[in-house]
Amino acid sequence: MSNNAPALILNQESLKIHFTRHSSISEDITKPPLLDLKILASLSSKRRLHHVSGRHALSKISSSKDGDVLEIVPGLGGCLIRDGRIFARCSISHSDYGAVAVVAPENMSVGVDLEPRNRIISQGALNLILNEKEKYDAQDEHSRLLIWMSKEAISKALGIGMSISKDITHDGKSWVAMGSRWATNSHHVKISGVEHIAVIALGITEEI
User: Fold this and answer.
1) What does residue 111 show for φ and ψ, rounded to 5 degrees?
2) Is 2 a domain residue?
3) Residue 111 in domain
4) Which of 57, 110, 171, 179, CA to CA, is 20 to 30 A from 5?
5) Is residue 84's pLDDT more than 90?
């Protein structure tokens, strides 16, 4: 994918994903819908840029307009709401270089995590999210990063923090969390010259 332009992918399930560079936001004079001014007021300048970049990416693929609301709903994750009704599901993630947003139909659970490809997860952080079996499965830095990102994406799709990470497990067939199954897939993209991985989690309708 190009380093100089955002990427837009549409798959057969009508899942949309959009990447954007933080620097590109300064080139766009329009303010995207879905900005949360209360959140913005409480953030540092760096975090404000992350917030705006994520909402900017989301606005490109969600058909959002002024008056729409993005709300994190426990059990449902990110929900785009218009006139009191959920019209799409979504998720946003950031790095120091850019942001990614994903949008799915209102009946599809979705979450995303974006990290630089060379990010190293500390052992202390790993101990907080890995169960005993996973400590043996994660034999290299790349495996550890993908496990971390998969759990992050699933927890976001559920609208719940990483506090449930040890209860998100892989049974050899798919990820399992809170009585539901999850599939994950990764996209590799270069943002501002830095290789990134985006892991997307999608809910599977199959019963456990």
Assistant:
1) -150, 155
2) no
3) yes
4) 110
5) yes
Answer yes or no: is 121 within a domain: yes
Domain of 142, in residue numbers: 8-204
Per-residue burial over 82-95, b = 16 or more CB atoms within 10 Å of its CB, e = otherwise: eeeeeebbbbbbbb
Please state, as a whole number, how many other Cβ atoms lie within 10 Å of the Cβ of residue 208. Answer: 10
Cα–Cα nearest to 102, from 127, 120, 77, 138: 77
Indicate the pTM of the whole model.
0.87
**pLDDT tens digits, 15-49:** 899 999 987 765 565 677 788 788 888 988 888 88
Q: Which residue has the tokens 């996209």?
A: 187
> Alpha carbon 64 to chain centroid distance?
18
Q: How many domains does the chain have?
A: 1
Under a CB-based contact definition with an 8 Å cutoff, are residues 176 and 182 in contact? Answer: yes
How wide is the angle at C-alpha 161 spanned by C-alphas 156 and 106, nearest 5°?
30
Residue 177 lies in a domain: yes
Residue 4 has pLDDT above 60, yes or no: no
pLDDT, mean of residues 98-108: 95
* C-alpha to C-alpha distance for 155 and 152, rounded to whole angstroms: 5
